[in-house]
Amino acid sequence: MQALKQDKSLCNKLKLQWITDATTFYQLKLDWNKLASYYPTQFYFRHEWFDSAWQWAQTLGQLKILTVYDHDQLIAIVPLLLKNIIYKGIPFKQLEFLTVPDTQMCDIIISPPYYATGTFILEYILKDKSWDKLKLHYLKPNSLLSLFSQMLSQSFTLEVTTQHPIVRINENWDSFYATKGRRLKKGNNLCRNHLEKEGTVVLENLIYLPKNELLQVIQRISQHSWKQSTHTTFDQKAPYAFIKRLTELALEKHWLNVWGLRVNHEIIALEYHIEYSHQIYALRADYLTSKASLSPGTYLNWKILETLFEQKKSIYYMGPGKNTYKNRWQNYLEDVWTFSSFNKTICGTLLKTIEQSLIPRLRIIKDKAQILT
Questions:
Q1: Do 158 and 227 lie in a common domain?
Q2: Buried b (16+ CB within 10 A) or exposed e, 20-33
Q3: pLDDT at 373
Q4: In this structure, what CATH number is given to the domain that contains residue 360?
Q5: In which order are the strands placed within the sheet that holds 256-263?
Q6: How far apart are CA 69 and CA 76, in angstroms?
Q7: Are residues 125 and 196 both part of a single domain?
Q8: 160, HSE (Cβ side, Cα atoms, 13 Å)
Q9: Residues in contact with 169: Cβ distance below 8 Å, sequence separation at least 6, in sequence order
Q10: Which residues does residue 164 pair with via DSSP β-bridges, in sequence order?
Q11: Is the domain of 150 the same as that of 5?
């Protein structure tokens, strides 16, 4: 995207204000979603998402949301969180997007007529002295923030830090499945045979369960999944507060699908989806480790994908991170970018020296030593 020249007269009209308390954040909901409506395919711009994320993130840092007004009109939001972090024994403050591990994208949310003020807004954040390091994850390719950063005079880095696997649903299921290798198909059939030997196998959407029962199922499967060691499972207080709020809000808006795999009437695996503007976002996929030998996650993912093709959805975001089962199915990898900058504080300057000078030099010395030995 081509860099935008700043409109100084428009910038001079703006009022920028930090929101640091939850009450004011909740009161922004109507104006926030009015702004988000400029991006009708972006679920992760909705107030409901950040409301849910805050239930978890409030245990991780301080709310710090930048709001930008032109008179009484809210024209931009930058949803941020200020964290206390220790790195190499150095305590410092890091400013990040308001995210949780289930976040898949984030960005500046701004009214399109005000794009020419985007760099001005970003500069305002960079001049703030409350943080030592600014690290904004989950930027999509051609994000608004990357567009606005092109006109910055301050030092920063913008780099690809991971990739998200995606299935673009632009053909029928039979055509898509025909492109998959013999090994995948053989594994799927073997998995199906193992499950059917156990008894009746049913794929169902669990959203029709009573809400409390649905939450109990989500919590139980997560609690007994392999992710227990990550401390992000839903038997933990903060992650549960997040999924509870998201489930409540998504049910109200008819955004939620929770696909469950029942074997002999017992739910042994599930995948938690948000459906927004015909786009599917997989937030969590879990199965009971006691049933791992049956490969329930493999079967569930296979049958969910088949269903999404039959329903003619447009795109399936498989969730953060790459792994073997996602790589078997994805037909596109989307780059995820991170914007970073160091403040001119004492800690910010020290961190910059360590990360950009000392550590690279130590790596060179280590590499040379390995070559010599």
A1: no
A2: eeeeebeebeebbe
A3: 62
A4: 3.40.630.30
A5: 62-63, 80-87, 90-97, 133-139, 332-342, 157-168, 315-317, 279-287, 266-276, 256-263, 201-205
A6: 7
A7: no
A8: 8
A9: 176, 308, 309, 312, 313, 314, 315, 316
A10: 334
A11: yes
Q: Per-residue pLDDT for 153 more than 90?
A: no
The values of phi and psi at residue 40, to 5°, are: -65, -15
Residue 157: CA count within 13 A, CB half-sphere: 13
pLDDT tens digits along 265-274: 999 999 999 9
Specify whether 228 is located in the same domain as 205.
Answer: yes
Same domain, 135 and 37: yes
Read off the pLDDT of residues 102-111 as tens digits, 9 standing for 90 and up: 999 999 999 9
Indicate if 36 and 130 belong to the same structural domain.
yes
What is 162-186 written as a DSSP string?
EEEEEEE--S-HHHHHHTS-HHHHH
The residue range of the domain holding 146 is: 1-165+335-371
325, 188 contact by CB (below 8 A)? no
329 within domain boundaries: no
The whole-angstrom separation of Cα 204 and Cα 209 is 11
Backbone angles phi, psi at 143, to 5 degrees: -65, 160
d(CA 290, CA 263): 13
At residue 3 the predicted structure's pLDDT band, cuts being 50, 70 and 90, is low
Tell me how many domains the chain contains: 2
Contacts (Cβ under 8 Å, ≥6 apart) of 360: none
13 shares its domain with 103: yes
Express each pLDDT in 154-199 by its tens digit: 899 999 999 999 999 999 999 999 999 999 999 999 999 999 999 9
Q: Say if residue 21 is in the same domain as residue 156.
A: yes
Distance CA(151)–CA(143), nearest Å, equals: 14
Number of H helices, E strands in the chain: 14, 15
Predicted local confidence at residue 27, as pLDDT: 98
pTM listed for this prediction: 0.93
